[in-house]
Amino acid sequence: MLSNQKPVWMGVALIFSVLSVQAQTKLQLSSFENNRGSWSEVTKVWADPLQPNQVLLSEGKGSILLNAPDKKKPGTDIVSREKFGDAEVTLVYMMAPGSNSGLYLQGQYEIQLLDSWSKAEVKAGDNGGIYERWDESKPDGQKGYQGYAPRQNASKAPGVWQTLNVQFKAPRFSPSGDKIENARIVSATLNGVTIHEDVELFGPTRGAMAGGEVAEGPIRIQGDHGPIAIKSLEVKPFDRPAPEFKSISYQVFPGSYTELPNESTLKASSSGKIASFDEFVAGLTTSSLSKFDGTISVQKAGNYTFRMAVPSNGLGAIQIGDASEPMQLRQGMILAAKALQPGEVPFVIWVSKPTDWTAQGFYLTANSDAMWQKTYSEPAGMDFWASDPILVDTRETPVLRSFIELPNRQKVSHGISVSSKSGSHFSYDLNTNQLLRVWRGGFLDATPMWNDRGNGVSRPLGAVTDLSLNTPLLHNPDFSPVSKEWQAKGYQVLGDGGVSFSSKSADGMELKDQIQVKADGKGIDRSVSLSGNSAPMMIRVAPGKILTPVSDTLYWIEDSGLFLQMKVSGQKPQVGAEGIFLPITSALNYSLLF
Predict the structure, then answer these.
(1) What's the CA gap between 87 and 78, in Å, rounded?
(2) What is the mean pLDDT of the chain?
(3) What is the pLDDT of residue 17?
(4) CA-to-CA separations, 397 to 2, 421, 422, in angstroms, rounded
């Protein structure tokens, strides 16, 4: 069953450029206060996710910050020496099994860092949650309030590097020091998955630093609750004011235009001046061409990108600065990128409505590094950028056949995706017998598949790890691919999160491939059997080149964020040019933990 779910929209785009704390390229404890005791600088960190004890193993001395509290060295919080207001904060961190920590923005607002591996339902106190505020005067059970759970559990296994990205707006204060606007989490993503959008923070969360809310404050990492490792902490201040459109004049010309005419031939039906584009009214219900001109006030030099579009098959043109090329009307998204200096810069905008419609106006935004996206104009009463998403209801449709897009934009034509109640899922290519991807979180967005005419594609909703780019299943011992054409013989659903696939090659080899999501959701078990084969071969099980033994049967594929678990002690994976391989002649069993 497919369901429509209303999206939460926001007017801020993610702009990734990084500035590390104190503009350092190497993260150091000297960037923080209170940096002794349980904290150290190491070269490598890893953990066994299957062990219940809260331990992070390490070696060497390097640029990874490790908090490893024990009885002799109790855990301590560290606080950045630098202070920030509006900022984008990107933290790459690793949790020990069962461990607990937190990222405090401005020392006041905690984003929880927790080992929430395999939890089917998450709360405000789970990984990526915005922690509760606290009031001791309230009755028991009501002391905690205004916490916000992440939209879905996008956490990875303990012992794997995770990435939290937060766009944060600091509270605003009057000249007399009174708070006039609350802080906001504009957006937060965990391992590439949006978990918060436009969340207002009405006050400090529990455990905030003394002193209360401030215009600028430090980054604080909680260290007194358990082991955590920090691979990088990057803070990009948002301190660039957005340009402002000033002295806007407009003219409206009746008629249908798909190309700009000679302006001297045009006769305006109306004209005037407006303070903003939202004040504009064409005054015509039929087709028309409108011209806007004026100046843009720029406060800070930089590279700016202006984007405009006209809905309902309309056309537009935008020119920033002095004319260098003739303007042309175009459909779709129109970009004007310009390096601007402080001062007044001329602009010209054309908006063409070649057919009758009801929507007035057009879409216009500006972006620049270290600047919040600014929206200057939106079509009246019309959301034309996206439809409501069509999400697959796993209770009714636990398995879905669809096209599957790979990262290199190839499209798998005979793909199948399998869900589980635990929140872990996988996709499979019926043509090549390749396990394509695994992920945790929501199941599938079928909007591209079913909206409008549809293109047949479904997309995973959670934290995805891609395993194959439509490459062959079998390889020779020298890692060269074995060329075989497989004919799918069908598949059998085995229950929650389990499917058995069957195929036959042109030369008579038969393949049975059974994949089952683990009951606890921590990964998948795979069993591959080949009949009619006597030659030693290899199967590529995952991308990656950095393989760390964790135990006799467990390996960490660091650059893929996966653990490879062998069923037989002593069976060792091999690192090839194209990833991690396991040998097979007639049968192979292994697990991937993620």
Answers:
(1) 19
(2) 91
(3) 31
(4) 8, 12, 15
| Whether the predicted pLDDT of 11 surpasses 70 | no
Write the pLDDT tens digit of every residue in 169-189. Answer: 999 999 999 999 999 999 999
Bridge-partner residues for 194, per DSSP? 189
Query: Given strand 288-298, what is the order of strands in its sheet?
Result: 270-274, 244-254, 288-298, 343-353, 315-320
Task: Specify the DSSP element, H or E, that contains 448.
Answer: helix 447-450
| b/e sequence 327-345, b meaning 16+ C-beta within 10 Å | eebbeeebebebebeeeeb
Instruction: Return the pLDDT at 290.
Output: 96
User: What is the model's pLDDT at position 174?
Assistant: 97
Position 429 pLDDT exceeds 70: yes
Residue 297 in 3-state DSSP? strand
- 447 in helix, strand or coil? helix
Q: Cβ of 136: how many Cβ atoms within 10 Å?
A: 5
- The conformation of residue 278, written as its DSSP 8-state character, comes to G
DSSP lists the bridge partners of residue 268 as none
Tell me the CA distances in angstroms from 546 to 56, 95, 383, 522, 540, one per residue in order. Answer: 18, 19, 46, 21, 15
DSSP 146-184: S-B--SS-----TTS-EEEEEEEE--EE-TTS-EEE-EE
273 bridge partner residues: 249
The token pair at 93 is: 């961190």
Neighbours of 149 (CB within 10 A): 18
pLDDT for 25: 41
Mean pLDDT of 191-205: 97
Q: 217, 206, 210: which is closest to 173 by C-alpha? A: 217
59 pLDDT tier (thresholds 50, 70, 90): very high
Look at residues 486, 514, 503 and name the one whose alpha carbon lies nearest to residue 418.
Answer: 514
For residue 106, give the DSSP letter: T
- Residue indicated by tokens 């970009």: 335
Q: How far apart are CA 114 and CA 118, in angstroms?
A: 12
Residues in CB range of 12: below 8 A, 6 or more apart: 167, 186, 187, 372, 373
- In this prediction, residue 357 has a pLDDT band, given cuts at 50, 70 and 90, of low
Q: Please tell me the distance from the alpha carbon of residue 376 to that of residue 388, in angstroms, as a whole number.
A: 24
Q: Environment class of residue 471 by beta-carbon count within 10 Å: exposed (0-12), middle (13-18) or buried (19+)?
A: middle
> How far, rounded to the nearest angstrom, does the alpha carbon of residue 135 sit from its chain's CA centroid?
33
Cα(259)–Cα(350) distance, integer angstroms: 11
pLDDT digits (tens, 9 = 90+) for 248-296: 999 999 999 999 999 999 999 999 999 999 999 888 888 999 999 999 9
Provide the 3-class DSSP secondary structure of residue 32: strand
**R_g of the chain, CA atoms, integer Å:** 28
In the predicted model, is pLDDT for residue 18 greater than 60?
A: no
Determine which helix (DSSP H) or strand (DSSP E) holds 30, and give its type and residue range: none
Q: What are phi and psi of 448, to 5 degrees?
A: -60, -25
- The reply to whether the predicted model has a pTM over 0.85 is yes
Q: What whole-number distance in Å separates Cα of residue 41 and Cα of residue 63?
A: 6
Cβ contact 188:112 at 8 Å: no
DSSP state of 409: S
pLDDT at 475 over 90: yes
SS3 content of the chain, % helix, strand, coil (to 5): 5, 50, 50
Whether 368 contacts 320, CB under 8 Å: no
